[in-house]
Write a structure and sequence with these properties.
6-stranded mixed sheet; 3-stranded mixed sheet; alpha/beta; 309 residues; 9 strands
């Protein structure tokens, strides 16, 4: 038993811990919500759909419970090999969790992918809760109709109405999860907020900046890897990352006119990585063409995805 657990036990309250899988359609707000509940950035956020590619675990402490949120890729109708891997990963995360949180964008409601996910959840037997997000954008009577419609298909344990953006309703959600997870020791140290290695988190941050800068011009055929990480004697860190694209035309887009795009991406990423590390960062970005990287098993392993045959 760790000192942390001894302290908790000394207070007469048993510890609880467990995994909560966030399942939902693309752009339902899963990454924004996990960052809100953890209280720090652990998952990249973009208005571009299908940003999350692999399961990101964000770790939160609430009362005497350690809640491990599994931010899964958005579920959608797959078209490419990468799409199939992402959807398979999302459903696999649901089946490994103690509680499944089905997140719905209240503005979109039960349309398209959300309706298909609801049907798919019938085959998953873990306890399930319904979370309606973006409630500040929808009339209360419409929220009630949406909640009723979802609960007609699946009997959820509880329904919550929240705003991941401003935090409304999130405390009630955390209270419920802390009280419902099984009793047991915590899985991670008290000060750990994610299971992502810093090299991978740094790559994810750069990928987010790439999406934010080039979401119109650059398609999904891009991937970022941290190739070098050097802790320097002056307390700074030197990081070298490679942005992989599939065609020479995409490389030109990523670089931008006179290198303006890659400079802006590097500046934004370096600033955020430095804030997280709390030390100066020297970030060097390179763009390389790797044709059909989306069919390369090694790239899938790097992203934490199984390569679909």
């Amino acid at each position: 038993m760790t000192d942390m657990e001894k302290d908790t036990a000394a207070e007469g309250a048993p510890t609880h811990s467990g995994f909560v899988a966030m399942i939902g359609a693309t752009n339902a707000g899963k990454s924004t919500l996990v960052n809100r509940l953890v209280g720090a950035k652990v998952s990249i956020v973009s208005h571009k759909v299908q940003t999350t590619r692999a399961i990101v675990r964000g770790i939160a402490i609430h009362d005497n419970a350690q809640i491990v949120f599994m931010d899964t890729p958005g579920i959608f109708k797959p078209r490419r090999r990468l799409d199939r891997a992402m959807v398979t990963t999302a459903w696999g995360g649901a089946k490994d969790a103690d509680v499944i949180m089905f997140l719905i964008d209240s503005e979109r409601g039960l349309k398209g992918d959300a309706e298909a996910i609801l049907e798919g959840l019938k085959e998953v037997h873990q306890p399930k809760i319904l979370v309606l997000n973006k409630i500040d954008q929808v009339r209360p009577e419409d929220l009630l109709k949406l909640a009723a419609a979802a609960n007609e298909t699946i009997k959820f344990e509880r329904t919550f109405m929240i705003s991941a953006l401003n935090g409304s309703g999130c405390t009630d959600l955390m209270d419920y999860l802390a009280g419902t997870l099984p009793e047991g020791p915590w899985y991670y140290p008290e000060d750990q907020i994610s299971d992502l290695p810093m090299r991978q988190l740094a790559a994810e941050i750069t990928r987010e900046k790439l999406f934010l800068r080039l979401h119109q011009e650059l398609p999904y055929a891009s991937h970022v890897e941290t190739e070098k990480w050097e802790e320097r004697k002056d307390g700074s860190v030197r990081i070298e990352q490679v942005i992989y694209v599939e065609r020479e035309s995409q490389k030109k887009i990523a670089l931008g006119k006179g290198g303006d795009a890659i400079k802006a991406i590097s500046t934004a990423s370096r600033k955020e990585i430095s804030e997280i590390l709390e030390q100066p960062v020297h970030l060097f970005l390179f763009v390389k063409v790797r044709e059909n990287w989306g069919d390369d098993p090694e790239r899938f392993r790097e992203m934490g995805l199984e390569f679909p045959r």
